[in-house]
Each structure stands twice: as C-alpha cells, then as structure tokens.
Amino acid sequence: MTRPTPWLKSAVFALSLTPLAWLVWQALFGTLGVNPIETVNRFLGDWALRFLLIALAVTPLRKVTGWVPVARLRRMLGLFAFFYVCLHLSSYLGLDLFFDWQALAKDIVKRRYITLGMAAFVLLLPLAATSTDGMIRRLGGRRWRRLHLLVFPIAVLAVAHYWMMVKADIRQPMLYAVILAALLGFRVAAALAGRLRRPRSGGAAA
Ligand code: HEM
C-alpha cells in the first residue's frame, strides 16, 4: 500500500488535536459558558462521535476516490476517537461525579443512555489494545479485521447513546444516524458486490 506523504499524517495529527486545543483555550479564557462542565463533556462527546464516523468514512473514501494512501490514516483517526472518548468519560467521572465510582455504577444501571455509552466504551477497549503493528501480526490480518468490525456496533451504540440523551431536539443525533446509515449501507453494498465477484472466497474486508 502506498504510504501517505509524511506531511499528510502530521497535518491530520495536528488537525485532530485542534478541538482539544480549542477547548483548553476556552477554559483558559473562561469562555465555556454558564455550565462549563456540561460544555466540556458534551464537546468531547461530540468529537468522539465525529472521529468514529470519520474513521469509518476512510474506506468508502478510498474506494470512491481510489486515493489509496488515505487508508493509512484510518488507524490514527480511530485512535483519536478513542482518545476523545477517554477524555469524555474522564470529564464525566472527574468533573461531574468527582470520581464517585458508586455513582457511576448507579448511572450505568439506571440511565439507559449511560449504559449504551459505557457499552460502546468497553467495546472500544480491545480495538485500541490491538491497534499496534505487533498485535496485528500476532492476531493475523483476518482475525484482526474481524475483531475490528466491532467498530460498526460501537458507532451504533454511540449514536443511540446521543439520541437517548437528548430530550426534545433530535436533529443532531438524527444527522449522525443518517451519516452512519450511509456508511453502513456502503459497506454492506461493497461486501455484497465483492461476494458476487468472488463467490467462493470468504475473506472479511474491514
Ligand atoms: C463511544 C463512546 C461514546 C461516545 C461516542 C459518546 C458521545 C456522546 C455525545 C455525542 C454526546 C452528546 C453531546 C452533545 O450534547 O452535544 C454525549 C453526551 C454525554 N455522554 Fe457520551 N459518549 C460515549 C461514551 C460515554 C460514556 C462511557 C459515558 C459515561 C459513563 C458518557 C456520558 C455522557 C454524558 C453524561 C453526556 C451528557 C449528558 C448531558 O449533558 O445531559 N458517554 N456523549
């Protein structure tokens, strides 16, 4: 696979840190609004979900445009999704619950949107843990790709988490749901087309 030019990887890396930089800037200058904790938590949740969807969009983008090097950015974008999810969870646990683990456990049991968010987080852990070259080698490409198909149910759980959290205006989570449905639809169509072309081969394409 053609490697992306180093500047592209560095540029995407730097760009991926700009939401965090913006948040720190707003915090330093006290412009996070009347409920800064909620602003921080929601902002980080938004970016976690955006990075998940951006990572999922890499393969369709490669297939549609034929721009092969973009595939090399997928792992980094997926890890940024995990990074923002960790910050999102930490902000909730630290700033909202003051590290009251019992309150967290209660929330997981009682509030359904938290249950879904936590399920998404737990499912992300094995993906993050197996994101190194060494783990890909150890698992073998096929098993690794199968495991990483988990990213689809994770994204569904994350969108459902957002959807169930909002009380009235569902436009934003609905937009994410439509984008996710389009990305899933693309993958299903690509998999079916692949099977029609190669009826006897059984490889999974992540
Ligand atoms: C893959 C994992 C997750 C993703 C992608 C995600 C994403 C989101 C998004 C997009 C929002 C709405 C932001 C907005 O209103 O603009 C949100 C809100 C929230 N999430 Fe998550 N989340 C995840 C996991 C979690 C976990 C593990 C927890 C806690 C255990 C959690 C707790 C919350 C809370 C407390 C809110 C805000 C509720 C409020 O302000 O009323 N999330 N999340």
Structure description:
The chain has helices at 6-28, 36-65, 74-96, 101-110, 112-129, 133-139, 141-148, 151-165, 171-197. Helix 3 packs across helix 5 (112-129) and helix 5 (112-129) packs antiparallel against helix 8 (151-165). It is globular and about 55 Å long. With 206 residues, it is mostly helical. The protein has one domain. The model is unreliable at 202-206 (pLDDT under 50). The chain has nine helices and no strands. Protoporphyrin IX containing FE (HEM) is lined by residues 38, 41-42, 45-46, 48-49, 52, 85, 88-89, 92, 114, 117-118, 120-121, 124, 158, 161-162, 165. Protoporphyrin IX containing FE (HEM) binds next to helix 2, helix 3, helix 5 and helix 8.
Short description:
This protein is mostly helical. The protein has helices at 6-28, 36-65, 74-96, 101-110, 112-129, 133-139, 141-148, 151-165, 171-197.
SSE layout and pairing:
Blueprint: H1 6-28, H2 36-65, H3 74-96, H4 101-110, H5 112-129, H6 133-139, H7 141-148, H8 151-165, H9 171-197
Helix pairs in contact: 1-2, 2-3, 2-8, 2-9, 3-5, 4-5, 5-8, 6-7, 8-9
The chain binds protoporphyrin IX containing FE.
Descriptors:
mainly alpha, binds protoporphyrin IX containing FE, 0% strand, 9 helices, single chain
